Amino acid sequence: MSVGMLLIVVLTLPFIGSVIAAGLPRNARTTAAILSWGVALANVICLAALWPAFQDGEVIRQEIDWLPALGVSLVLRLDGLSWLFSALILGIGALVVLYARYYMSPKDPVPRFFSFLLAFMGAMQGLVLSGNLIQLVVFWELTSLFSFLLIGYWHQNASAREGARMALTVTATGGLAMLVGAVLLGRMAGSYDLDVVLAARDTILADPLHPLALGLLLLGALTKSAQFPFHFWLPRAMAAPTPVSAYLHSATMVKAGVFLLMRIWPIFADTQMWEIVVGGAGLLTLLFGAWCAIYQHDLKGLLAYSTISHLGLIVLLLGLGSELGAVAAIFHTVNHATFKASLFMAAGIIDHETGTRDMRKLSGLLRYMPFTGALAIIAAAAMAGVPLLNGFLSKEMFLAEALAGAERHALFAVLPVLATVASAFSVLYSLRFIHQTFFGPPPTELEKTPHEPPTWMRRPVEVLVALCLLVGVLPAITVGPFLRSAVVSVVGLDPPYYSLAIWHGFNLPLLLSVTALATGVGLYLAFGKTINANPGGALGLRRFNGGYLFERAMTQLNAGAMVVEKVAGTRRLQPQIRVIVLTALGSAFVAVVGAGLAVNPPPLAPRIGDFAFAGLWIIGGVCAFAAAWQAKYHRLAAVVLMGGAGLASCISFIWLSAPDLATTQLVVEVVTTVLLLLGLRWLPKRNEAIRAAPNEERRSKRRRRIDLVIAAAVGAGLAAISYAVMTRPPVEGLSRYFVEHAYKDAGGRNVVNVILVDFRAFDTFGEITVLGVVGLTVFAVLRRFRPASDSLPRPPQMRLQDASDNRREGRNAGDTLKETMLIPQVVMRWMFPFVILLAAHLFLRGHDLPGGGFAAGVVVAIAFVLQYMASGAQWVEDRLTIRPIAWIGIGLLIAAASGAGAWLFGAPFLTSAFQYADLPLLGRVPLASAVIFDLGVVVLVVGATVLVLVALAHQSLRKAHKADETGPEGAA
Amino acid sequence: MKEIVLALAIGVLSASGTWLLLRPRTFQVIMGLSLLSYAVNIFIFSMGRLKTAAPPVTGTGAEDVAAYADPTPQALVLTAIVISFALTALFLVVLLASRGVTGSDHVDGREPQE
Fold this sequence. Notes:
The complex is a heterodimer. Chain A has helices at 3-22, 29-50, 80-103, 110-129, 133-151, 158-189, 194-199, 201-206, 210-224, 233-236, 242-248, 253-268, 272-294, 299-319, 323-354, 370-384, 390-408, 415-438, 455-473, 475-478, 480-491, 508-533, 546-568, 573-595, 608-630, 635-655, 659-680, 694-726, 735-746, 751-759, 761-783, 796-807, 815-845, 853-879, 884-904, 929-966; strands at residues 60-67, 72-78, 914-919, 923-928. Chain A is an all-alpha fold.
């Protein structure tokens, strides 16, 4: 497999695994775990295979075109830094998967958990492998999204939901700012490609906007890495299952911010803004986090704040702007990931086995779980910076850098002191974590007797702790090469000298380190009891609560939104439509005024036929006005009048050389009228005599006057625009091609039909799909339909007939009606084959002469509706089984198959072919494959139209059934 | 002169349609939509200019585009006619369902309050 392919595999495998895991049954805990483990392991192997592929400072790239028009392509980019981060993400990911298998309760939907976890892993991979700024932001936001799902996994807990929401709000807002920053940066550099951006350092720094871009990018990085003052989401995110905390807050989510800082370090590290903002945020966070961690009673809370503090340390190291600082930051990132993941896992084990994470209730656990205890002690010692462990090494580097920084810059003069204080705090809380949990008398407040966890739950912790020890003892051999390749890709091919040794002789950093250790132990001995007794919150910081401020801000935002909604919003439809119409009117007005509306005289002098045309539209216009006038109180009249207007437009189409339109309009007019007539019976009776109160009357009059003005403006505007266009010389557009090629290339003489079934067949395909969807929707709505009771009693004529039937011997009610309908029935039954014949005729001639699939389909539907009208739903349904839904499906399949047939000949979808054939009787006829497509159109149109009409007509039957079954109450 | 007549027809149809669209009763709105779709269909059709006795049905030889009415807007309008039928049908059914559920035929699903 090529290197590029390997990269693609590394990126896509987690997402594929996530989709598969999402499809597993709810209780498939082990299967999902094995799947996830396999994915993580396979990726680790791929990554290991990639290691030899790049030497010092080299970069592997794999490009895939994404948005070439915008100069954005999907670039997978692997260098030393991203390799190291990938290794952390995948390695710790694999261990977390293993751990989670035993941690998660079988009662939870565990496959979903693994699905989220894998997706998150994929998003992190995408983030660190991004070779393009936009792509980086996209994956960045994906990690926010999946971390939201992971933190909120136990969505039945309010705290989990709130924590998830807070994390998403904070990190996604930061991500948004970062997107703007990335776009700015890309524009300054002239490309979004990371390599180009990194090479364009001088151009970027010369741009006056670069502080803005940097500020926005930092907003993203600092929110993600939970830096002060955006740190508050991280402790709340502890409501997540512990494997999630172990993963997100050691190796991945919070390290994404650090990763971004390292990525842009080469560009910005020398600027003053960088030193102040990044260094300042890091220093504040380091101290603040450590101080708060001391006062936590919850194991995970303590680890959360210590995470914040350690992230502060890393950010501070990057903020110093020195190359050695960057080295120490990268090294500490790795070390922190290992010991923090193992500590979170240990905390999870304690929680799992004792049922609590409250340190005040825990005590003396070492005697119950000696192995876990020993592992936790080593990991905590690494966190405290005890020699022979990895934490010690990076902490020494940090202290050395703090001293160097103090020498370099007056601003950093107090840095060594503060660094030592923070280290002492770190010792203090690590010691408290261990002593309070594992030492002392046996616990008294526990509900169950603790014991060691299942072996495989402990294994991941063992691996991580072994790594802490190995790196601590043999740093140069174990982590040296990886660190070096990462350092090279940040600070360049000529890295500063640094030594990965345990012993550097007696020097100032060592002295500070020892001081910190001693001070920490001393502080614990002196104040341990006081801290345990402290009810809540860090001393001096109780009033400061970022989470509270956040909640307040959210509440205010919500209240503001409600005010806006109250002022500007409405739930009523009419004002909304009015706004839409006015907007359309306004924008058309602006466009017309902007372009200037030149009105030319009509091209031809009036002829005699024109007066007939004018007469036609006098009738049509009166019909339209009258329909608008009568639609409220006289619906039947309105339907008839609207039909009149429709006929006028139908005749205009014939007149103006559009026979296809006229045919289609005519048949559609018929079905629309039938449809509206079917619906009329369920609309409420409206009495013209009833008027509203005078006050209301005045208001509604005003409203109507406004609407009248709007309507008149719309009419006048459309008339003016259409007149202006019609009197301009014609524009040829596409039509020349269509006319010239219709017969030559598509074998049809009816250009309109050829456009529909051949040139633009894909559009038509979409259109018939819409039609099918509408048919099905109508069917679905009517299935659950509870019609309103009939608005009108039976008409007097029908009542008289029934009364007379009842009076006479041997006759039943309804007999007269049946006899009256007998002749229409016979006529319409006999019309059925002829109407079908007409449809077939329309369809067959469609390619060459006016006609075609749409018209033919509607005509077939009319044939069915005629039977319903003449003989009633009952009679038709007893004799005829129509399966309109099947027709819809088959029609769509025929159309799709005729299109897909082109693939067999290596042509694109819906390419048509035609040939002339000599048929007996008919002579020489063109046979185009587009005719098959048109057949699909017919079948689908029949299905959809019949479905709509029959579904509505059928309601009358259903009503009767209902009344029979439930009696008079059923109608209510 | 046909241009003037057709332009006025479009104006009348669209004005009636818009007026009905802004009314409070569902049936009025459905009629309004139908009238408006007539207007819009003729409007789109008219963008191809008006020609009498020149339907776009060609012969079998070389063709001159100027001899025929413009087929492109016609093709657009043909599907629009069918789709506006579908729209009317869907809206009618929703209207009836809404009337069945709420007992009101007001567009907001309830009678306006004082």
